[in-house]
Amino acid sequence: MALFPISSKFDGDFVLKLVPVDTDDTMAAVAAAAAEHSVGVHVPDQPGKVIRARAEGAADPYPLDMKLSETGLGPTDTVEFYFE
């Protein structure tokens, strides 16, 4: 359990954001934390859809139940978020 900053690149948002999360957070929790800074601010909400996260440039998203500490991401690495 440790504070861990990620760079959030939310689809449709024009600003990258530094978001503090925890290494024990699931990727669903990380996506929710990133959404707080973009959805309803720069990106319209899409009720009923799930926010997914993937490494920058990756084709596949992380499993929602995967812990951040299991992703291999480093501090301030960019994570892409999008509605699915």
In short:
GO terms for molecular function: monooxygenase activity. Its EC number is 1.14.13.-. This protein has a single domain (3-83), classed as Ubiquitin-like (UB roll), CATH 3.10.20.270.
By CATH, the superfamily comes out as TmoB-like
What is the name of the CATH class? Alpha Beta
SSE succession: EEHEE
Molecular shape: globular
The helicity comes to: 10-25%
Report the C-alpha radius of gyration, rounded. 12 Å
Strand order of the largest sheet: 2-1-4-3
InterPro entries: TmoB-like_sf, Toluene_mOase_B
GO molecular function: monooxygenase activity
Keywords: Monooxygenase, Oxidoreductase
Organism: Nocardioides kongjuensis
Could you list some keywords that capture this structure?
84 residues, alpha+beta, Ubiquitin-like (UB roll), 4-stranded mixed beta sheet, 4 strands, globular
Spell out the blueprint of helices and strands.
Layout: E1 3-10, E2 17-22, H1 27-38, E3 51-55, E4 78-83
Parallel strand pairs: 1-4
Antiparallel strand pairs: 1-2, 3-4
Describe the protein:
- It holds the Pfam family TmoB.
- Its EC number is 1.14.13.-.
- Keywords: Monooxygenase, Oxidoreductase.
- This is Toluene monooxygenase system protein B.
- The protein contains 1 helix and 4 strands.
- The chain has one helix at residues 27-38, and strands at residues 3-10, 17-22, 51-55, 78-83.
- It has one domain (3-83): Ubiquitin-like (UB roll) (Roll).
- The protein is α+β, with helices and mostly antiparallel strands and 84 residues long.
